[in-house]
Amino acid sequence: MHCISLLSDFGSNSSSISKIKGVLLQQIPSTQLIDVSHQVSTNNVAEAAYLTLSNYKFYPQNSIHLILIGLFQGKPPAIILHKAEGHYFVSADNDIIPSLFEKEAITSYKITTLEKGIFITDWIKAVIPICQAIQSNTIDLANFPVIDNNSKSVFLPSFAKGNTLDCHVLFIDAFGNIIINFTKREWEENWNKRNFTLTFSRTSEIHEISTDYHTHEPGSKICRFNEAGFLEIVQILGHAANTFGLSVQRKDHLIYSTLKLQFK
After folding, report:
1. Domains in the chain and their CATH numbers?
2. CB 233 within 8 A of CB 170
């Protein structure tokens, strides 16, 4: 069965998702629609990128992922199709998907622009022919212009000062686990798996990477690399974000609370 995943910032108090699913099922009744999340913070492209990165690899090859963030921000709004690692991502003309892949691993195509459409259903109706062509294996990408992916990362950068790295909160999940913008790949390639101390409040430090939960006492704090490869702070049977007073950082924030990784 063919899959289309849906990710948006529409929230739960909106009929938009119901309309989207209705329009898709009218035209592609055999497809399976899967909700990733509709609770992305409004226009938070870094959060959308993280959730996409955390999920797409678990879908079958040739799955379609609709990234419904900032759809009408262009002048005029454009619909972009990205192909990477056997998956198709459809989004507005933003940096969410290009941020997830090395430049040589992704190809992006401009499908169309919405000169008159102002409703979410207009956007979905414009996407449907592409979805149908992908699922029927009849899509000819040569019909669409390739666009350059000289995009800026949507993730806030970490700043290195000698042996110290200043990091930020990227995402907080429903359990209060805190995901920060530092990856296992960075640790292995740039820091040679060196030991470090993670400091995230005046009195809170973690000195080692954990690989399980069950050996730790309730209330204790640990850090680990999650399935998406990002460093995550967890409080066992607790809510780390509330306990330590941390919140998601965005590029439009004037003041950032930093978490410090000091390498030994």
Report:
1. 3-147 (3.40.50.10790), 159-263 (2.40.30.90)
2. no
